[in-house]
Design brief:
By secondary structure, this protein is α/β, with parallel strands linked by helices. The chain has helices spanning 24-32, 74-87, 106-118, 153-163, 201-212, 225-231, 246-252, 262-269, 273-281, 307-320, 354-366, 374-381, 385-389, 393-408, and strands at residues 12-18, 50-56, 60-66, 93-99, 122-127, 142-144, 183-187, 216-220, 238-241, 259-261, 291-296, 325-330, 343-346, 371-373. Helix 9 (273-281) packs parallel to helix 12 and helix 9 packs parallel to helix 14 (393-408). The protein is globular and about 80 Å long.
């Protein structure tokens, strides 16, 4: 995928599931029109989920995921099944592929129950219909196809397009907070962690959303921000900063100008912000020996002063004064058991789709482990979390209540 392509996090994720040798990979290749997946008559050819970002008409930008068979056996087979089930956490639309000659057995019915439990819209594709003497009439949500003979492929794609819907409750990043002709200042450090020759994805997406709102984006480094304010004839509607320079930017931005961060905007868009604000307060209650999980949705190259592995642990230790343990996950990895952790600190999630972020939020809440994100955690430790939430009036009021509750609820770490 090139830098100009739609980010994977904004694409509809379509997962193909089923037993070994049901023809999942062949059907994926037929639907995509590419030899995306290796196919063979040998059961278990697909050993790991295969991802492909592409344009799939009539849906548009999608990520197609081919998964291992969910009836795999043995030690390695169990690991493959585990990976296939993990794909469900990011799947927007599921295709259950069954052998038309065998119909639905216990494995397929178990999958349908999982789809229903997770609220995933699905299509049942009975593959290899060319091997039937007579093709039965398909029921609701079902279709007979033949990957080998390219039968029913167009109808399957149209069925998928009918199921596609905008992510539930999805907000814009910043466009709904501003009006046409508004001025928005974006503060972007250029440090060792900044990619050469380009901006990182959250910055690109925020600029795009500002332009789509017919507003004006002004980009500046943190050290030039004060001079910029001295030269502006128009007061900015909003300042958005990289979380790492929150304190300096807060000091340089007039108090009557709203201020927030890229990370906080992404947390709001993905439905995490309310929990993240509450979770940020839990930093004050950390104890000696507590373990903190720092989770990132991407697997970027680590620099010497990386925010996730170096800066955040240092800032949290300095803020709390506690002897803490830290663990890290990146990319698609997220622990099945969160009980060892007193707090989860997540990145903004720009590389993860909404369903995956909601899954991680629900997992944390179900296990009673507070979850926050980089921006809200940093704002809390620098004493400016309340200010960073003022752009969201309903949340700011609720946060004040949470803050008072936390202050009166016990002897926190600080």
């Amino acid at each position: 995928m090139s830098l100009n392509d739609t980010p994977a996090s904004n694409r509809v994720h379509i997962g193909f599931f089923g037993k070994r040798n049901a023809g999942k990979s062949s059907l994926v290749n037929a639907v995509t029109g590419q030899d995306l997946a290796v196919v063979s008559d040998v059961s278990g050819t697909t050993t790991d989920p295969v991802y492909k970002a592409m344009e799939l008409l009539p849906l548009g930008p999608v990520v197609v995921i081919d998964t291992p068979g969910l009836d795999d056996v043995g030690y390695l087979g169990e690991k493959r099944v585990k990976k296939a089930r993990q794909v469900l956490n990011k799947t927007d639309i599921a295709v259950l592929v069954a052998d038309a000659r065998e119909g639905l057995g216990p494995d397929e019915r178990g999958l349908l129950s999982l789809f229903a439990e997770k609220g995933i819209p699905r299509v049942v594709a009975y593959n290899k219909c060319d091997l039937l003497d007579r093709v039965p009439e398909a029921g609701p949500g079902e279709i007979y196809v033949s990957a080998a003979e390219r039968v029913g492929i167009r109808e399957l794609k149209e069925a998928l397009a009918r199921l596609e819907a905008s992510p539930e409750g999805r907000l814009r990043l910043v466009g709904d907070l501003i009006s046409p002709s508004d001025l928005v200042v974006l503060v972007i450090p250029i440090d060792k962690a900044a990619p050469k020759g380009r901006l990182i994805l959250p910055q690109q997406q925020t600029i795009r959303d500002i332009l789509e709102a017919d507003a004006c984006a002004v980009v500046v480094k943190e050290f030039e921000l004060r001079d910029l304010f001295g030269s502006l004839a128009k007061k900015p509607r909003l300042v958005v900063t990289d979380s790492q320079v929150f304190a300096k930017v807060s000091a340089d931005v007039p108090r009557d100008v709203p201020l927030t961060s890229f990370s906080i905007l992404f947390a709001r868009q993905k439905g995490l912000l309310e929990a993240a604000a509450k979770g940020a307060l839990a930093i004050d209650s950390l104890r000696d020996g507590d373990a903190v999980l720092i989770s990132e949705g991407c697997t970027h190259h680590r620099q010497c002063d990386d925010i996730g592995t170096v800066k955040l642990p240092r800032w949290i230790r300095n803020y709390t004064g506690r002897k803490l343990e830290f663990a890290w996950t990146a990319g698609g990895d997220f622990p099945e058991d969160l009980s060892p952790y007193a707090l989860v600190v997540h990145c903004g999630g720009c590389m993860l789709n909404d369903r995956e972020m909601r899954h991680r939020l629900r997992r944390s809440q179900a296990e009673g482990v507070p979850i926050t994100n980089f921006g809200t955690a940093i704002a809390q430790m620098q004493g400016i979390l309340r200010r960073s939430l003022e752009i969201f009036p309903h949340l700011a009021v609720e946060f004040e209540g949470r803050e008072a509750e936390a202050a009166s609820g016990g002897d926190g770490a600080r």
